[in-house]
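Reading is simple: the token line describes the chain's fold. The lines below illustrate.

. . .
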Amino acid sequence: MAHPFALASPSRWRRFRRLSVGQRRLLIEAAARLAWAAVLVRVAPFHRVIRSGAVPLGPMMAHDHAAVARAVRWAAAVVPFRTVCLQQGLACQAMLRARGLDARLHYGVATGDGLEGHVWVMLGDATLIGGDEASRFKSVACFPD
């Protein structure tokens, strides 16, 4: 993991300042949602965690769903704590649903050298988060159900 102070590197701040105000807001929201998900994963039982991204649909907003997913992936790469598919999926799903988009969080399992779990987020037929590995996993639950 990168040193926590790497967040403040001059090149990252330059890139951040070059973003539009809307992109900055999206990135800050993604980092906050990731922090929320990381805390939740540590303190809440799994059955509550997995449903937590399924916030009620907000008013429909004109927004690029791919930009939300990009913001979550970029924020996940720079926050000073570990995020994996679960935290990223919860953050992305909550952000999309708050914008009136019916994002679905899929939980899947695979067997091989043991039991593995994976989370991915879909909006319609598009996989926005966790899609690189989703094909190896069998979906066993979808939230909201």
Q: What stands out?
A: Residues 32 and 109 are 28 Å apart (CA to CA).
